[in-house]
């Protein structure tokens, strides 16, 4: 990966981290609208997934901010936080554990991996660290440094890619707004780009969610 691609991937990962991990807020949406995010989105994929996602993002961000926020709040809750069954569980463990547990063995393995590599991840409320948004924040940290490519490869291959495709597919089909459908597509395009650039073969695992 050249330096321009790394910078584009880092910028995109930072935005996607906020979009997936944080509840929607007026200030963030206004920042995206003011930056013309759909037209200025970092160019890292040039594939159908990204192009369709950017069309959806532009359509979403063309709405008045307050009206958009009113749509996004219930969609975010239904997808990621409840109440009720989540439409797109954002943590990895339920996909990888037969009882769909939070903080299962895969979460513990990720925490041990973070400790081994000296990576500190701060969550808002003691929640499991295998949240896709938090993983994107770590990707943003690692992707700018070519020397960290082996570490980034491990993170993607062993701790994210085995389940992220399922989560993002659920998000894209279950989201009720163009905005969250777009975020799912842009995240998938980013992960596909990283996987191709780092020549990662995703392990085939059984998924339970």
UniProtKB/TrEMBL annotation:
Origin: domain of life: Bacteria
Keywords assigned: Chaperone
A Pfam family matched in the record: Nitrate_red_del
Name of the protein in question: Molecular chaperone TorD family protein
Organism: Ferrimonas pelagia
């Amino acid at each position: 990966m050249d330096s321009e691609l790394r910078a584009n991937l880092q910028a995109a990962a930072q935005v996607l981290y906020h979009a997936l991990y944080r509840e929607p807020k007026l200030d963030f949406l206004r920042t995206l609208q003011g930056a013309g995010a759909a037209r200025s989105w970092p160019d890292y994929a040039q594939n159908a997934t990204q192009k369709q996602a950017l069309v959806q993002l532009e359509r979403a961000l063309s709405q008045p901010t307050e009206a958009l926020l009113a749509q996004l709040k219930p969609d975010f809750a239904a997808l990621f936080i409840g109440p009720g069954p989540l439409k797109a569980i954002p943590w990895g463990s339920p996909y990888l554990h037969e009882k769909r547990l939070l903080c299962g063995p895969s979460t513990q393995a990720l925490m041990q991996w973070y400790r081994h590599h000296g990576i500190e991840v701060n969550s808002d409320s003691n929640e499991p660290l295998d949240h896709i948004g938090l993983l994107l924040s770590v990707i943003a940290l690692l992707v700018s440094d070519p020397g960290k490519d082996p570490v980034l490869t491990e993170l993607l291959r062993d701790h994210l890619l085995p389940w992220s495709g399922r989560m993002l597919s659920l998000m894209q089909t279950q989201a009720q707004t163009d905005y969250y459908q777009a975020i799912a597509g842009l995240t998938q395009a980013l992960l596909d780009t990283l996987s191709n650039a780092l020549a990662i073969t995703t392990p085939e695992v059984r998924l339970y969610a």
